Amino acid sequence: MTASVHAAHLAHLNVATLRHPLDDPRTAQFVEMLGPVNASADAAPGFVWRLVEEGAADATGLRPAGDDVIVTLSVWETKEALWDFTYRSGHLEAMQRRREWFERHVEAHLVLWWVPAGHLPTVDEALERLADLRAHGPSPRAFTFASSYTAAEAVQHLQAAPPNASRSA
């Protein structure tokens, strides 16, 4: 984890439904990209943390959202840092080829939310944020690049919510 002067960091979850198992030859080029893309993320400006399976280099063995669904969970210092990695690095090639390896999602598959600096979100927390986005649309609690909120807006939103208030689905 890199040191940061930011009071809040941006958490990110992406879920992707595989067209074929990871050991299928049709998915081989994606699997070959995992190491370099993850190394690029780890070295990217503003990178803080990413989920990895214990004893592994990535999280592809974890399947909390279904047997054919892989997850990416990471934390970044700023929205701009995550954007730059996602769309201005070697990661872009994987994004451009994603239809070769992953099903098209009909509902939200990416969610962003602000966390206090130093907090590492759990998979359950991330999946709950995704469920919130799917059920209620973008808000300071769960949003996307296209409908983003600032950390200050997220704090205001949390302060305005009644204690122990939960959003109903």
Explain what you see.
Strands 2-3-1-4 form a four-stranded antiparallel beta sheet, sandwiched between helices. The protein has a single domain, classed as Alpha-Beta Plaits (2-Layer Sandwich), CATH 3.30.70. With 169 residues, it is α+β, with helices and mostly antiparallel strands. It starts with 7 loop residues before the first strand and ends in a 9-residue tail after the last helix. The protein has helices at 28-43, 79-87, 91-96, 98-101, 123-136, 151-160, and strands spanning 8-17, 47-50, 69-76, 110-116. Residues 10-147 form the DUF3291 domain. It comes from Streptomyces actinomycinicus. InterPro entries: Dimeric_a/b-barrel, DUF3291. This is DUF3291 domain-containing protein.
